[in-house]
Amino acid sequence: MNAPAPAGMLQALPAEHRHRLMRFAREVSFPQGTRLFEEGGKADRFWIIRTGSVTLDMHVPGRRAAVIETLRHNELIGCSWLFTPHSWHMGAETTSPLRAYEFDATAIRSMCRDDPALGASVTQWVGDVLAHRLRSARTRLLALYAPHGGGLL
User: Fold this and answer.
1) Which PROSITE patterns does this chain map to (predicted)?
2) How many CB atoms lie within 10 A of CB 152?
3) CB-CB contact of 34 with 146 (8 Å)
4) Which helix (H) or strand (E) holds 50?
5) What class does CATH assign to 15-140?
6) pLDDT by residue for the chain (153 residues), tens digit each?
7) What is the pTM of this model?
8) Could you tell me the residue ranges of all domains in the chain?
9) Interior CA angle at 41 toward 38 and 43, to 5°?
């Protein structure tokens, strides 16, 4: 059974923190089929989807990359930017034309260090998203590769 998706930034952060983050937002767009990042790459930015969709995938040795989750409107693309070593744990690819807000991770981490309340809000939000993604990854990988009837779910 899938847990509900975590709240988007608009619901997860207090208005004051949302407004402060949005001052750093840059509007970007990508065509369908664009790789936003690769597993193991430097996590130096993140995005909030305005329109379009993105799949998160995970490298599986000896097999094709496994699609873990599809993200849509108001969802966070990228969690690894907040936590050391700041490298992507999954890959991401647009599955339709994408319009998003892009944020520079270094600037946002600095802002979070300077304002502990903001830092706590952002960490809670991203942590909730990350926990959801880990559950989704486990469920998806078990569904793809576990023996049927193994009782692992």
Assistant:
1) CNMP_BINDING_3 (PS50042)
2) 10
3) no
4) strand 45-51
5) mainly beta
6) 444 555 577 678 999 999 999 999 999 999 999 999 999 999 999 999 999 999 999 888 888 888 988 999 999 999 999 999 999 999 999 999 999 999 999 999 999 999 999 999 999 999 999 888 888 878 877 777 777 655 544
7) 0.85
8) 15-140
9) 105
